[in-house]
Amino acid sequence: MKRIAPLLFLLVGALVGLLGGAVMSTAKSEVAQADYGQVLASAGDTNITRGHLAEYAIESVGKQILINEMRKIAVVEEAARLNGITATPAEVEQRVKESFDFAENTQVAAQMKAEPRPLLADRLRAVLLEEKMLNITANENDGRAFYTKHPQMFIHPARVKLICVACDTEERAANALGRLKNGEDPNTVSSEESDDKDLKENKGEVGWFTQSQMSPEVAKAIFGDDKHPALQVKQFSNVIRYTYDNVVKQDQHEQFLVFYVSDLTPAVINTYDTAAGAALFYARADKYLRLEPAWYHAREQEITYKVREDLFDENAKMIVLPAQALQKTADQPAPQLR
């Protein structure tokens, strides 16, 4: 594992791990049928096939996936079949595009990007089918009302472009800070002082970040707070002590960081005309989140869902799962549809 990984955890806040296993597809699913004999890994002449991975995945999490996520999609598909409702590939692709275009933040977009595209399309296809069965639409009045009620969702936050120096000792980081105070080039300082191999190679360049993408200690150092002003272009932070869990060595590791702001863009409040597409998207999502739970709960009561009692026993009987408890949706801004 590259040592730059802890730094990315620090800046992004959290990384999302998504299971990439075998998925049982329905007739209308966007998920392609897989070749379970395909070799995914090997040790000498001993191969690990997609089928082997599928068995492990089914054994570890398969039952929960069948009971929860795949159950939801199957119930929606069956309700749509009974009502003669369909969603075309073009409609699904448009919804996928909108979900990326209007993602709440870069973390949500990263989560969607990390998920296999066919699985994401399956989820959004189910949402489309539900919206059609619930007659959910959004017009300009809906969009303007949502924009007025949730103006904070249409602000492009301030961003900073950063150069980072990451050292294993506070003394070394303090030396790097001293060089920056003396006016030395931050790229040179990072390439010479950082103990992180990747930072050395990239001359400290870590890219653009908003405040929400940072850990609290970095956000405070760069964007400031009530007592400390935000850093401006060509300014740098003091030494930041950062401790993270080393999953390889199964212990904690400490780093000392210094950040230099090489560029920034201020926050921008979008007008409704500029944000109309996003406002309509979220207005529709808001309706969906309010209406969908009760609708889906009712469908669970109507449509019998069965699952094999033992996933590895071909002779195991199919048992009926009762409807899950209805969870009420809080009155809050709509999150990204997933």
Description:
The protein has twelve helices and ten strands. It has 338 residues and is of the alpha+beta class. It folds into two domains: 140 residues, no CATH class; 109 residues, Roll (Chitinase A, domain 3). A four-stranded antiparallel beta sheet has the order 5-4-7-6, with helices on both faces. A two-stranded antiparallel sheet has the order 1-2. The protein has a two-stranded antiparallel ribbon with strand order 3-8. Strand 6 and strand 7 form a beta hairpin. Helix 4 packs across helix 6, helix 7 packs across helix 12 and helix 8 packs antiparallel against helix 9. The N terminus and C terminus are likely disordered.
By DSSP, the count of extended strands is: 10
Largest sheet: 4 strands, antiparallel
Q: Report the sheet-strand fraction.
A: 15-25%
Rg, Å, rounded: 25 Å
Distance between the termini: 30 Å
Order of helices and strands: HEEHHHHHHEEHHHEHEEEHEE
* Average pLDDT score: 82
Q: Widest sheet: strand order?
A: 5-4-7-6
Structural class: alpha+beta
Instruction: Domain count, please report it.
Output: 2
Put simply, the count of helices is 12
Q: Looking at the structure, what is the overall shape?
A: flat
Which regions contain 5 or more consecutive residues with pLDDT less than 50? 1-27, 329-338
Residue share in helix: 40-55%
